[in-house]
Design a protein that fits this description.
By secondary structure, the protein is α+β, with helices and mostly antiparallel strands. Helix content is about 20%, strand content about 30%. It contains two helices and seven strands. The protein is globular, with a radius of gyration of 12 Å. The termini are far apart. The mean pLDDT is about 95.
């Protein structure tokens, strides 16, 4: 279980390759929108730009970027997928 003042972040596929990691714990003391959190992620990993294209899941549910991420949440970050 995550520390109440952190979130667990999972990176998948190309996002994991670009960040060089599959998961990490990040400090989060107050709720933040997915968009604002992704902007902070882009500041740490400029190679992810543009982050607006990335998808997020919070606690295993796909969510829009305006969703609030809460301390203690699990956040997954991945590229959009296309089918054919």
């Amino acid at each position: 279980m995550a520390n109440p003042a952190t979130i667990t972040v999972l990176y998948f596929a190309q996002v994991a390759e670009l960040t060089g990691q599959r998961h990490e714990s990040c400090q989060l003391n107050a709720p933040i929108t997915g968009s604002d959190w992704l902007a902070q992620l882009e500041a740490r990993f400029p190679q992810l730009a543009p982050v607006a294209r990335l998808k997020i899941a919070v606690n295993q549910y796909h969510v829009p970027h305006d969703t609030l991420i809460q301390p203690g949440d699990e956040v997954a970050v991945f590229e959009p997928v296309t089918g054919g």
